[in-house]
Every structure is written in C-alpha cells, then in structure tokens.
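Consider the tokenized backbone below.
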C-alpha cells in the first residue's frame, strides 16, 4: 500500500504562517532601534543641560579663594535647558511634557562644583503592542558635569 503525498501549495502555507511572525519581529526590531535613538537623545539633552549649568559659577567665591562653586541659580538653569532640549522629543514622551519632565528631574549639586541630573522618562513604544507588551516604557537617564 503506497501513500501519495501531494506537496503542492506547501510554500503558500509556510508563507501564510510565517509572514505575520516575521512582520511582528521586524516591528519589534524597529521599535527597539527607535527606543535606543530616543535614549541617546535623552542622554544628550541631560548632558548638555548639566554641562551648561556647571558654567553658572559663583564669581564672588571664585574671586575670594580661587575655587569653583556653583551659583544658586545653577539647578534652575539646568532645568530650563533640559526642558528646552527635551522639546523636540515631546511626541515620543508618554503622559508628560518636556517642561513637566524637567521640573520632576532630580538636580543635585555634587561637591559644590558639579551637578547631577537624573530623571525617568516615560517613552511611547506603540509597536511593542504587537509583541503583547505595553505601549510605553520608562527610560532612566543620569548625567553629571563638574567644573574644572
């Protein structure tokens, strides 16, 4: 007794089953790439804000003893610059605005002559829904700058 196997159309079956999986995988890879770019832009914004805020020096203290000390306005300058630098990313932020994110950022003086900016940014990731994940994620960013 011989069974005849008809393999006509098996490629169509494989394509029908595998194509949606490959498209979801492609969407996942594209979204991860977009998240990496967004994280890099967030880090750049925080670095720029910290570096610029360090330039706010207490000139009187510098004249008296020659040591760098940050002015009292440095944390506010850091927040203003952070909000300005986050503005182009407003569409990627989930449930917050650049101004609100800058206000909630932790801005701390480090050894009197440095500044550290730290914040958690909720970021939209709509294509992750295809992989049964949430439509947003939180990226943690920290930047430190010191006067020299």
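A designed sequence for it:
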């Amino acid at each position: 007794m011989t069974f005849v196997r008809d393999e006509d159309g098996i490629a169509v079956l494989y394509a029908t089953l595998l194509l949606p999986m490959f498209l979801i995988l492609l969407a996942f890879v594209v979204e991860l790439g977009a998240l990496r770019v967004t994280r890099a832009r967030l880090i750049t914004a925080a670095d720029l804000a910290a570096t610029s805020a360090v330039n706010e020096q207490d000139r009187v203290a510098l004249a008296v003893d020659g040591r760098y000390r940050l002015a009292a306005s440095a944390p506010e300058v850091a927040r203003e610059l952070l909000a300005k630098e986050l503005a182009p990313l407003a569409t990627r932020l989930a449930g917050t605005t650049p101004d609100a994110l800058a206000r909630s950022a932790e801005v701390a003086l480090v050894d009197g002559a440095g500044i550290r900016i730290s914040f958690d940014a909720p970021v939209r990731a709509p294509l992750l829904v295809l992989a049964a994940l949430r439509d947003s994620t939180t990226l943690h960013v920290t930047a430190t700058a010191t006067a020299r």
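Strands lie at 106-110, 114-124, 136-146.
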